[in-house]
Structure formats: C-alpha cells, structure tokens
Amino acid sequence: MLRIGMLTSGGDCQALNAAMRGVVKGLEHCGQDLEFYGFFDGYKGLIYSDYRLLTPRDFSGILTKGGTILGTSRQPFKLMRVPDENGLDKVEAMKQTYYKLNLNCLVILGGNGTQKTANLLREEGLNIIHLPKTIDNDIWGTDITFGFQSALNIATDTIDYIHTTAASHNRVFIVEIMGHKVGWLPLHAGIAGGADIVLIPEIPYDIDKVIEAIDKRTQQGKGFTILAVAEGAISREDAELSKKERKDKAKKNKYPSVSYEVAALVEERTGREVRVTVPGHMQRGGSPCPYDRVLCTRLGASAAKAILEGDFGYMIGMVNGETKRVPLQDVAGKLKVVDPKCQLIQEAKQIGICFGD
Fold it and tell me: Which residues are catalytically annotated?
C-alpha cells in the first residue's frame, strides 16, 4: 500500500490541479494499492489535520480546471518555528499528522516560501517531493515553473487589448504586471505584447530615460506609448535607499502602486494623458494553457516515478527540456532573478525597448 499526501500552498495559479492529476495518473498503473490524502488550505491542513481521503476519481476531469481543488493559503516560512496562538508547535504538528496517516511521501506544490518549508520537513526526516509552482518563474533549479506560461498569456492579452484603445486616443498606457521581486513575467509579456517601455525590479529605472523614450516616439509621429511595469519596479533613487528607508517612504507614498507614481510623473513632465491598467489577480485565474497542461503532466509523471523508486528529497524541475530531480537543499531559499546583462534583455534593447536605464 502506497499512501501519498498532497497539498498546494501559497498563491494559486492555473495549473495546480493539472500537476496533482499528473502525479495520480503516474501512480495509477503501478500495480500497488494506493491512498491519496489531500490536505486543505496548504500547510494549514497539515498542521491541523484537516484532510480528506481522495480517490483517483477526484482527480479526473481537472486537467483544464484552474485554481486548486484542495484550497491554499500562505503560511510564511519565517513563522513556521513560531508557535500558533494556542502554543502549538507547527513543525511538530505537521510531523505528527504525517506519521499518523503512515504516509510514504508528501507531494508539495508551491513557490519559494512553500519550497523552504518543504526542505525544512525534509530535514525533519519526512519523504518530500516538491513541484515548482509560481507565475513569477523565479524558482532556482528549473528553467520554467508551471503557472508562468498561463499567466504570461493573460498579461500579453491585456497589453494586446490596450494597444487598440491607446492607438485610438493617442494616449500613454501603463499595464502593471505581477512581479514583486523578479521581472520574468513583465519582461516576457512586454516583449510578446509589443510594449515600448518595460520596467522590472532588476533594472532600477531613471524617470528621465522613461520620459525621453516617450518623447522620442512622439517625435517619430507615434501617438501612443505602452509601458509594461512590474509591480515591484523601483526607481534608481529608491534603489539606493536602505530597506528601512524604502519602507518608511512607502508609508508616506500617496500612490497605490509604482505604476500610478510613474503615470503622475509622465503626465506632469509631458502633458500627455496617461491611463493605468492593473489586471491583478486575473493573471492567476482561468484555465491552464496547453503548455502548462503538458508541463504539469510531465512533472507529475516524473514525481510519480521518483515515488515508486523511493527517491525523495527532490524538486522535480525542467532543465534543458527534460524533467530532472533537483536536490531540495540545493535550491530552497534561492531566487532566480533576471540578469540585466542577459541575452534576452540585450535583444529587447536591440529592437528599441527601453528599460529606463
């Protein structure tokens, strides 16, 4: 009998269900009896023993379903060693739930914070397999995370739709794309959507350079300009401040996000009409795109193979087009950021995209 626990943690995305289905499908024909335990709302379900025994039928028909059938929540890694309001030791509680159910393995789907806790549980002696989920594509050790391509499609569609109204009214439009710490999503969406200016966290922007790029387009007879701005984009001045100084400044900031601040500066300096569009959590919603469905099926099948071989303590990543078992201790806590000198950035600059530097 193989007893497999599964949970989804952190922010949701389109392909979580597809990835869980891939694991179950990969185990169905192993010739062993199987039990699947789904923990509700991420690590919270594991901590408080909130789970349900599932059957393969529960995973049928969910390949195209967005969100997660198990629910999710954010449980910050830095608080995992801190007792809850009732004094409960969370790590010990998770271990007790695991051993109570006599699990052979716990499959954890999530991003960076989720991965750090997964590695913590590995260090505590549990059999762990991690599947890399995040629309930000910022997990170290894998070329791509599931959820990224689906979110990219939505972000790109948003920029595409903005093009027609921007051109009709000769306006400057800012589309704010998710990406608090890294800029993979706004970078790819900006290029795919034909944005003229792309601002990402890894390249602090100079507002003078942004104004210069807009003025240049105007002088060329191009009446509109589109900016793809990461929610974590930062000005050159703010990048030179300490973390504490930035937090203090943010408390006094009258703008809801960096996009509105950039919009106000552009309007003030150019006299142009500026509009801001924030697709927000739409980027996490809807059905997974075909690419993510294939990716999750492959990752799930590879995870199933590792489980059957009794090989635990890994993230199942995608490296050079092949699934690969990547040791959790080698990647947990590492962030995959955009290198400002990378080929993709240089090629984008070659075709005239401004990054504000």
Answer: 136
